[in-house]
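Board notes (copied after class):
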Amino acid sequence: MSRSSPDVVIAPDVFRWLYGSSGFTATDISKKIGVSERIVLSWCEGTQKPAVPLTKIEHLAELFKRPLAAFLLSHPPEEPRLPRDFRRHPDAEPGYSKELLLVIRKARRIQEIHHELTENLHISSQVPLRIRTLKDDPETVALEERELSGIQISESAAGMSSVKAFEIWRGWLESRNISVLKTKMPHGDARGFSLTDGEPYVIVVNSSDADRARLFTLFHEYAHILLNTPVICSQGEDDLKEYAPVERWCNHFAGAFLVPRDEIEKNPYIRQALTSGNYLKAASSIRRRFLISDEAGLMRLLTLKHITTSQFVQGRDKIREEFAAREAKKKLAIEESGDEEKGGFGIHLDKKCVAEKGTGYVALVMENIRKGHISNSDALDYLDVKLRHLEKFQESTGA
């Protein structure tokens, strides 16, 4: 005779915390555990204590991506507030999607692990930054930060690409105790976000974005760190005049950092295009020379007052239309050929780990193994890889 699973009473405020931080709806929960939506809503509202069979709590843990122990807490733990969002479209749904909330939680966990691993090795995780304000000229700040880096990237260098440039700048930020994560987020939700309520600081960029767009996002988020304003930067479709002052400052900084004013002014191809009035050709020249997108190049022309806001909007819309047409054509070709897009199954977990978490984080984990501060089991959890991938890391680093 089978015995039913015992009921477990979840503390009401713990359930509301788990529910609220998951992004799932009462309907989602009702379907997952086979309880009426009315009862789930009563749990959410606190009018009825959640008494749930243990087997169904296991299903909820799977849905929320939380450990089973989280449902047994007497009180919800204190968690940092979500990053603010300066660019939500007026018609956007309130709150963040469940996918984005999960990415934020994972980023915070990496941040906590990173801090613990640096403490094990007696390495400071303090971020050596000079905090800026909106009163500071983003053009001047970008020049100072670029000179501080000491890095010169030439598009004519052998093998140079936007992907390689991203990794070079990522390495510089990691050297300043800013962890850079590259992970997939819903394309309409966010291009990136930053976390500055703990050390090391964290920048997360959307791996679904184009390579050149990620490069711009990297320094847009670095600008938020310089301003000490952690935010979610979404795909907001508002015209420039409606953007918040912080977003304008960050866009200006990112453009000025990646495309120095002096290098635009002295470039004969860009100057010739501007003289002839062909600002889209000028933006295209900036894209080729500085490894950023056409739209970012157009934004740079706007901040330098080479074009008007109306010209920017007109050019931006044309660039996006052409991009959408290319993507539709590419998708159709893939469907007709029967081939799946390159992704998940073809990527080795070890390479995916480095791409997502960065070489600095991986090296930190391996050094902690070598010094005996963590076990192989810990490392597998921190890196989210299998044992054979960990052994490959150990071979390459001598850990």
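Comment from the instructor: The CA atoms of residues 233 and 285 lie 27 Å apart. The radius of gyration is 24 Å.
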